[in-house]
Amino acid sequence: MSHPVVGLYAGMKTIYEQVLEYYCGDERMMEKVVKCVRYTCKCRPTQFADHVVPILGRIENANEKHPHSCFLYLASIFVGEYANFPQFQAIIQKVLEVFVKPTSARLRNKECFAEHPDMAEDFFG
């Protein structure tokens, strides 16, 4: 039996995907969506696992256009939740593939760290 929050997320998945696609330039909106996804993931990580790879694809696309630190934060939540489970190693690998290279490129020197403190904190925090 799925936790009610996970079931609610599954029912609204299409809406989340549409919001991620159409409003990816609105950082405030993205922070709210990430907050909902994060809460659902932390509530029942094993039940939410099937949703992680698809949502990673969405935030990867959004992050390419508008690199908000909240996307990186969500990726770090996924790593924190799934790193200790061998069955989720593919998820961890996907997170690393999606975020390490582009984030490292954005944080290439100390000026970039000063310009993007939230991103630096989410990447190294």
Summed up:
This protein is mainly α. The chain has helices at residues 4-22, 27-43, 45-65, 69-82, 89-106, 110-115, 117-124. It is globular, with a radius of gyration of 14 Å.
Query: What is the residue-mean pLDDT, rounded to a whole number?
Result: 87
How much of the polypeptide forms β-strand, as a percent range? under 5%
Number of helices: 7
Low-confidence stretches: none
* Strand tally: 0
Measure the end-to-end span: 34 Å
Write down the secondary-structure element order: HHHHHHH
Helix content: over 70%
Radius of gyration: 14 Å
> What gross morphology would you assign?
globular
The class by helix and strand makeup works out as: mainly alpha
- Biggest beta sheet summary: none
